């Protein structure tokens, strides 16, 4: 039986945080057992906002090491760096030429990020979702496991594939591109900031206390949780519309302790914050400890990591190149030999 294909990626901008792990990477690890899984470090996306060239390569390697440390197994998953496979840029260009400008101008993330960049907004930032569509469509992905914030970008990728490529250049029985589906799990799909329960945990928040990164040492994790925003009410409950911080911290505890929502709802129903926060800190430290230990080992085996990425590049290239050729043909380009 042909296994369905999965593709996803994370940007190598700064340290990965709990949202990246719980919203995305954790799901990739489960999927690799019975899917044909491709995961990439999307370094081309990382330069859509001003970046530090002295850090890009290291951050890319660190991100790949974290994938493996979180449980991605290169024997079952193709792990690669986006910019190592030139087909991403090539398909992006082909898709650019059929994507209406106003589809990109209405992307929520573009509007939010553009606001922060002021006069410095690059064409790349606007084009970011088309590159993301190319990432997905190149691999004929059936499923794209992401956090909630990527839903609109996934819809755009579907629209480009269906309306702009298949409908115009393919035939009904031989579509040029596979139309992918998002996979957004309920738990962990939207981890919120520790300092504001109404905004998501994000790498770009200037306040480092707003996020826990996968490499934070135990004492820093405990400190950040101790300082996390709460409310003055006794008793902790899920889903209260006026208590977004409570919902977020309880949700994290349910996942990180492995106890699940129902058990946590009854355990914490009459707790105050003084009792709850050390429990959450201990559960977080314990959940990240094995990832951090494995990460340290991997970073001492740099050549092995490079071998994994090299092999991933070759496997990815074979699939991606075939798709680009198919699209080139559909669009009517002179064949290259
Ligand atoms: P990025 O690097 O911002 O985030 C990587 C993944 O982490 C998820 N995520 C979260 N999930 C839950 N709670 C949060 N607070 C949180 N913050 C981030 C994101 O939803 C994402 O799944 N454009 C993408 C990267 C990308 C991609 C792709 C993803 C490029 N090409 C192709 C899938 C397929 C991005 O910037 O993610």
Characterize the biggest β-sheet: 3 strands, parallel
Name the structural class. mainly alpha
| Average of the residue pLDDT scores | 96
Gross geometry? globular
C-alpha Rg (nearest Å): 21 Å
Low confidence ranges: none
Q: Tell me the strand order in the biggest sheet.
A: 1-2-3
- Tell me which ligands are bound: tryptophanyl-5'AMP
Distance separating the two termini = 33 Å
Could you state the order of secondary-structure elements as H and E? EHEHHEHHHHEHEHHHHH
Descriptive notes:
This protein has 337 residues and is mainly alpha-helical. It is 54% helix and 7% strand. The protein contains 13 helices and five strands. The strands form two sheets. A three-stranded parallel β-sheet has the order 1-2-3. The two termini are 33 Å apart. The relative contact order is 0.14. The mean pLDDT is 96. Tryptophanyl-5'AMP (TYM) binds next to strand 1, helix 1 and helix 7.
Descriptors:
two-stranded parallel sheet; mainly alpha; 5 strands; binds tryptophanyl-5'AMP; 13 helices; three-stranded parallel beta sheet; globular; 54% helix; 337 residues
């Amino acid at each position: 039986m042909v296994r369905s294909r999965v593709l996803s990626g994370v940007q190598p901008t700064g340290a990965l945080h709990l949202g990246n792990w719980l919203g995305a990477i954790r799901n990739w690890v489960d999927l690799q057992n019975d899917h044909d899984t491709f995961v990439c470090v999307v370094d081309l996306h990382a330069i859509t906002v001003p970046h530090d060239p002295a850090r890009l390569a290291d951050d890319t390697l660190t991100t790949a090491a974290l994938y493996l440390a979180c449980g991605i197994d290169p024997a079952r998953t193709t792990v690669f760096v986006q910019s190592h496979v030139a087909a991403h840029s090539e398909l992006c260009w082909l898709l650019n030429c059929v994507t209406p400008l106003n589809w990109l101008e209405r992307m929520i993330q573009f509007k939010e990020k553009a606001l922060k960049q002021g006069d410095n907004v690059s064409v790349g930032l606007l084009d970011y979702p088309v590159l993301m569509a190319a990432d997905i469509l190149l691999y004929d992905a059936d499923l794209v496991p992401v956090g909630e914030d990527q839903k609109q970008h996934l819809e755009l990728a579907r629209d480009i594939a269906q309306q702009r490529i298949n409908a115009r250049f393919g035939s009904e029985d031989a579509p040029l591109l596979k139309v992918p589906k998002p996979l957004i799990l309920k738990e962990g799909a939207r981890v919120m900031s520790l300092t504001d329960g109404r905004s998501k945990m994000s790498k770009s928040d200037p306040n480092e206390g707003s996020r826990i990164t996968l490499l934070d040492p135990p004492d820093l994790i405990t400190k950040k949780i101790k300082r996390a925003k709460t409310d003055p009410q006794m008793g902790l409950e899920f889903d209260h519309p006026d208590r977004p911080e409570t919902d977020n911290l309880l949700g994290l505890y349910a996942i990180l302790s492995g106890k699940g929502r129902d058990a946590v709802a009854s355990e914490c129903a009459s707790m105050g914050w003084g009792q709850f926060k050390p429990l959450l800190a201990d559960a977080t430290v314990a959940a990240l400890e094995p990832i951090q230990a494995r990460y340290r080992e991997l970073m001492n085996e740099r050549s092995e990591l490079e071998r994994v990425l090299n092999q991933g590049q070759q496997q990815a290239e074979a699939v991606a190149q075939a798709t680009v050729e198919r699209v080139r043909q559909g669009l009517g380009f002179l064949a290259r030999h």
